[in-house]
Specification:
Helix 7 packs parallel to helix 8 and helix 10 packs antiparallel against helix 11. The chain folds into five domains: 105 residues, Roll (Ubiquitin-like (UB roll)); 186 residues, FAD/NAD(P)-binding domain, CATH 3.50.50; 125 residues, 3-Layer(bba) Sandwich (FAD/NAD(P)-binding domain); 140 residues, no CATH class; 64 residues, Arc Repressor Mutant, subunit A. It has 17 helices and 35 strands. The protein is α/β, with parallel strands linked by helices. Strands 8, 9, 10, 11, 12, 13 and 24 form a seven-stranded mixed beta sheet that branches. Strands 25-28-29-32-31-30-33 form a seven-stranded antiparallel beta sheet. Strands 2-1-7-5-6 form a five-stranded mixed beta sheet, covered by helices on one side. The N terminus is likely disordered. Helices cover 22% and strands 25% of the residues.
Length: 693
């Protein structure tokens, strides 16, 4: 096993199991290295310290991963003589992997040995086995509808398999208080009990055709599926930004980071910076801390983070600076990321001169929103095929909302096809809208002044859909005034100190204060989901309030794992009575982590930023043609090759639209890019089938 492989793998995690991998040998650019059997080739390379996968033929720019989800083509490598996306290609013993530098000399490799295409009739075809697709399939399975559930990953669950945090929402309706990774297993297990539901993993939906056929590429060949109803639950893809250095290896989406860290257990980074204060960016910061990585900072251009306040407060308490009203100016590095430069923005989101700061980092996560993957739905509507959408393909929201929307769509489709008579209950629609809530009003915060007995302190002040603290209390002492899920939780007297509310809270926003044994030295129980192996009795702890302000030090009395297998450690800390009720957490990251470099780095030209990653087309080239009067993006594609690449315009389409807006061109003047017939690249051999002989 190579030394790099050992150094870059996560061998211990506070939530995830870390089994000893089964290793295989493969070669990368002639060097023999080791990887875990069956992991994606890109992950095996990361584990061995390889972040640069090759160089682009157009400008020699270094390339690595970007989406880690098969959506772009940045990680393409020559694998056993065939150019393939390394993030969706499983590693096997003896593979020969080579960088693609310019146009490679392709080996004489035959096409895929697959069976002849088959036609399959079904009642319902669901594209996407994430939370929405799984929930819909369960409802259809209960109704007895023949259902095929298609997903391009090797296991069902979608983004659930990346989520180590507990979910918000309703415990009854969408497993609130349970971690995403566990919800994925629960739903997949329930699917297996319904014989009318067939799950096709490692299978990619390629196209929707006018005759009602949906083309699906399976590992063994091409299937032409003819459903009576199509449900698109294909999720979302991450948005990107245009700034100099945005294509450097080390700059990638938060989802790619979570894939490397939480799915593949790769220690992908040492020092991370994050752009975007929505839930995706805030959660990615937390996942980095769980995996033992330093988070140097997070910037958000808006005056406040758009994600749940409990998510923001949680990482502030752990020592991550959140800079609102700031933006990214540039990423610096030659072969891979070395530093980032940020600045404050004014009321028009323009950088304020003199506020620039640079930070040494090796990873920059872009978490600036999501776009629905809805091209299948658009085509089905165009061709008059019965179709519905669910989850992020319908509306971007939390996974809890996606699950519930899947349940609703599944039952609606079952009724439409005649498999059941009862439509979704009336209250399901209103529940679904509540679960989509992005976070409402923030209420005034106060802490109890009492100094006797035992009681919980609820540090949650924002209206978000969440009720596990209420449903977990054995004495029903936590409730709300107003809405049963969106209301701010309130505590009434009678606590016994069981700590169940502390253990289950998804936002880690509840502590337990106990004055019973020693009123002058109360004990605070704090939830903790990071590595606690080095915490022993007598360890001094840096105590912080709800938003991370320092409250002094306390002394750790003991740690214990919360009951019920929730993978939360409870820290019992002795502190002073003056601050006990204000303590909301402990700081684990030293403030020196976030110190900037002595002086800001020299900024590259903004027009040098890359818009089209596949073809290395710059923002300057796009702006020049727009200013010369080009309004048809297909003409722009011909002139610049923007959108011509292997990803099919998936990553640059929204960036082109952004530049059009910045140039002040009305959208009505723009002719959009024509979509390709196939939504994923596929060897032609799949469409005809060939045998080994």
């Amino acid at each position: 096993m190579s030394t790099g492989s050992v150094q870059k793998r996560i061998s211990s995690h506070p939530v995830l199991p870390c089994p000893e991998p089964e290793y295989v040998r493969f070669r990368f650019d002639g060097r023999e290295i080791m990887g875990r059997k069956g992991e994606m080739v890109s992950s095996a390379l990361f584990a061995n310290g390889a972040r640069v996968f090759g160089h682009h033929a157009a400008d020699g720019g270094a390339q690595g991963i970007f989406c880690a989800n098969g959506q772009c083509s940045q990680c393409s490598l020559l694998i056993d003589g065939v150019i393939q996306k390394s993030c969706v290609t499983p590693l096997a013993e003896g593979m020969d992997v080579r960088s693609v530098n310019g146009l490679p000399a392709l080996a004489d490799v035959p096409g895929p040995a697959v069976a002849a295409p088959v036609t399959v009739d079904t009642d319902v075809l669901i594209i996407g086995a994430g939370p929405a697709g799984l929930a819909a399939a369960l409802e259809l399975g209960r109704a007895g509808a023949r259902t095929i559930l298609v997903d391009d990953k090797d296991r069902p669950g979608g983004k659930l398999v990346l989520q180590t945090h507990k979910f918000f929402g309703s415990e009854e309706d969408c497993y609130a208080g349970t971690r995403g990774i566990e919800i994925a297993s629960i739903l997949a297990g329930q699917i297996a009990s319904h014989p009318s539901v067939e799950v096709w993993t490692s299978s990619t939906a390629l196209a929707v055709f006018s005759d009602g056929i949906v083309g699906v590429r399976k590992p063994g060949g091409y299937a032409m599926v003819r459903p009576r109803h199509l449900l698109v639950a294909s999720g979302a893809r991450e948005k990107s930004l245009v700034f100099p250095g945005n294509t450097l290896p080390g700059v990638y989406g938060a989802g790619a980071f979570q894939t490397l860290v939480n799915r593949d257990l790769i220690r992908s980074s040492e020092r991370i910076f994050i752009v975007g204060g929505g839930n995706v960016g805030l959660i990615a910061a937390y996942h980095a801390l769980q995996a033992g990585m330093a988070v140097v900072g997070l910037v958000e251009a808006m005056p406040a983070c758009g994600g749940y306040k409990v998510h923001a407060d949680k990482i502030r308490r752990l020592g991550v600076p959140i800079l609102t009203g700031h933006t990214i100016l540039a990423a610096h590095g030659s072969e891979s990321l070395e530093a980032v430069t940020i600045a404050a923005v004014d009321g028009n989101f323009r950088p304020v001169p003199g506020t620039e700061r640079s930070f040494s980092v090796d990873t920059l996560l872009i978490a600036v929103g999501l776009d629905p993957v809805n091209e299948f739905h658009r085509k089905a509507v165009e061709f008059g095929i019965p179709v519905s959408t669910a989850g992020d393909a319908d509306e971007i929201a939390e996974a809890s909302a996606a699950m519930f929307s899947g349940r609703i769509r599944g039952m609606e489709i079952a009724c439409t096809l005649g498999f059941c008579l009862s439509k979704p209950p009336v209250d399901w629609i209103s529940k679904g809208e509540v679960l989509k809530s992005p976070g409402g009003a923030v209420h005034p915060y106060s802490v109890p002044e009492r100094r006797e007995g035992v009681f919980p302190v609820l540090h949650c002040t924002q209206e978000i859909p969440c009720n596990p603290c209420m449903t977990s209390c054995p004495k029903n002492l936590i409730g709300t005034q107003g809405h049963p899920i969106l209301g701010i939780p309130e505590y009434s007297d009678g606590c016994t100190g069981c700590g169940k509310c502390v253990s289950i809270c998804p936002g880690l926003a509840i502590t337990l204060v106990d004055f019973r044994n020693d009123p002058l030295n109360p004990v605070v129980t704090v939830p903790f989901e990071l590595d606690a192996s080095a915490l022993t009795e007598g360890t001094p702890m840096d105590l912080v309030d709800r938003e991370g302000a320092h409250l002094g030090r306390g002394v750790l009395l003991r740690t214990r794992e919360a009951p019920g297998g929730v993978k939360t450690v409870l820290l019992r800390i002795r502190t002073s009575p003056d601050v006990a009720a204000r303590v909301a957490g402990v700081r684990i990251q030293d403030e020196s982590v976030a110190y900037p470099e002595p002086a800001p780095r020299t900024l590259p030209l903004q027009d040098d930023a890359i818009v089209c990653r596949c073809e290395r087309v710059t923002a300057g080239a796009i702006r020049r043609h727009l200013r010369e009067g080009v309004r048809d993006l297909n003409e722009l594609k011909t002139l610049t090759r923007a959108g011509f690449g292997a990803c099919g315009g998936k990553t640059c389409r929204t960036l082109l639209a952004r530049i059009v807006r910045e140039e002040g061109i009305p959208p009505s003047e723009i002719e959009p890019l024509t979509e390709r017939p196939l939504f994923a690249e596929t060897p032609l051999g799949f469409f005809c089938g060939r045998c080994e002989e």
